[in-house]
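::Amino acid chain::
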Amino acid sequence: MNATTGSARRPKVAIIGAGFGGLGMAVMLDRAGFTDFTVFERAGDIGGVWRENTYPGAACDVPSPLYSYSFAPNPTWSRRYSEQPDILDYLRRTAKDAGVLDRVRLNTEVTGAEFDEETGRWRIETGDGETVEADVLIPAVGQLSRPAMPDIPGAGTFTGEIFHSARWRHDVDLSGKRVAVIGTGASAIQFVPRIQPEVAHLTVFQRSAPYVIPKPDRAYREWHHRLFRALPVTQLAGRLGVWTSGEFLTMALTSAQPLGKIVELLFRTQLRLQVPDARLRARLIPDYRAGCKRVLFSTEWFPALTKSNVDVVTDRITGITPDGVRTGAAEHAADVIIYGTGFKATEFLAPMRIRGAGGRELAGEWAGGAHAYLGISVPGFPNMFLIYGPNTNLGGNSIIYMMEHQCRYVLQILEQIAAGRASVVDVRREVAESFDAEVQRRLSRSVWSGCQSWYRDESGRISTNWPGLVWEYHRRTAKPDLTAYRNLAPTTAS
């Protein structure tokens, strides 16, 4: 990177989103002495998906020793796989202890941002009409922030209550109600077992059966907490063990797919032990290879489906009526409909309108599918760095680990700017295109290319997942390759 003239200074940074990614970036900036930053959060509290998803049984499917910041270990997790209240409390406590909460602007939605080539700065627009300028823009809105609402004919005619699991209606009493659940993804397998005992009848509409393998959960006792406090290395060892297991699962999905047979064996063993009815078992067997869609973890899902008040319907939904859900000529009565239909994972940064150099729209740059160099930098959008951007999601490990390395990568570039060795950096288009071609080539050989899932956009492009091990991502983001970027100078002094 060619040095620019002018005095060195610490850039002003705007972060969008106060979830794990945005708060992690804020803590790292503050610790490194970059204090001129603001985190914009559209909601009234921090927490991201762990603030939004409050459905019964909401929990993480990555053990907490790894699903947490490496710089903020928590010796008091209540469970190995923590539930939503514990995770949200951890985020709040970590941000408070780091002293970054006063830099978070709540109830402030960013609607758009435009790069000004004359000043080399970003102009950020908020929902209340305010314009804020910053040298660096860091969107950290994640991939699982916008619920996917299915377009089912007649939904507007339903006379009962209808809502998405990510917008759970706690004011709706399900006791004694006939409940229809549409979707059998990661959220549904958690809330269905929790609501099954209280409802009169539960109809689960399954479009495709998921691979569900045992979840080795356990409650941590006080002696665990004392041990983790007295000997932090024990919790670190647990973190390493989970990380290593995740790498093996990732290999089963990418470079060593025969290992996927282990996942299938675990699934079939649990299914046979927990579902004695052969006809029901047949409906719960996926018609795709293990890992093509997200592998789920639960020991409660199959037992819940065997209860006398539960029906699993695999016929295609043709519409919603005032009184329930229709499949062909059959109508399934319901008082409440709950969508467990996931998120719009491939619509990165929507609905924000982002304009880069020359007024180029990010939506136009991504017309053929979202892409970014290392999932972080998009050509033509100088000094914009994504956290949890395209092709950084994982099928078998902790996304917090990935986001930490993205934050460290961005921090190193900001240190170059602060030292006066750069001013405005833009990833070279040929570098970004070469990287994207490599990623897509490798993904085409992965198990994810074998079926339609939320990993793929409408064109079939896999724009969400990383094609290799997290160790590889660690290595490739350990130190920025500064030759991959052009160093631009603004037309006028800022």
Confidence is low (pLDDT under 50) at residues 1-7. The longest helix spans residues 232-253. The first strand starts at residue 13 and ends at 16.
